[in-house]
């Protein structure tokens, strides 16, 4: 007959946080060994891809490992993947360029003679 086993902690319910596996002790007895929840892999904040180079640890374990294990040497390393960082940099650059172009267009329009102004209105419509 199979040996009946008892939880070794105070939580008596079969919950997600109270998972066990059966191990045999050196004395030949079967006992429950409480196992921790499986850690989820860290994901990119932008595209939900898993971040390469970052270990999957339980939240409290990240406090015990050193900083270089939790990050990669890049802007937003350990938060965004390389593709997302590149996209953000390009996007920010293009927005800045657009601002400059707008400023230049505004100054040239102000410097240009007034005869051109009605043309612009027709172009808008
Ligand atoms: Zn990403």
From TrEMBL:
Is the keyword Ribonucleoprotein in the record? yes
The entry sums up its family as follows: Belongs to the eukaryotic ribosomal protein eL34 family.
> Can you cite an annotated GO cellular component?
ribosome
| Pfam families, per the entry | Ribosomal_L34e
- Name under which the protein is recorded: 60S ribosomal protein L34
What species is this protein from?
Myxozyma melibiosi
User: Highest taxon of the source?
Assistant: Eukaryota
Q: Which UniProt key words apply to this protein?
A: Ribonucleoprotein, Ribosomal protein
Keyword Ribonucleoprotein part of the UniProt annotation: yes
Name the InterPro entries on file.
Ribosomal_eL34 (IPR008195), Ribosomal_eL34_C_sf (IPR038562), Ribosomal_eL34_CS (IPR018065)
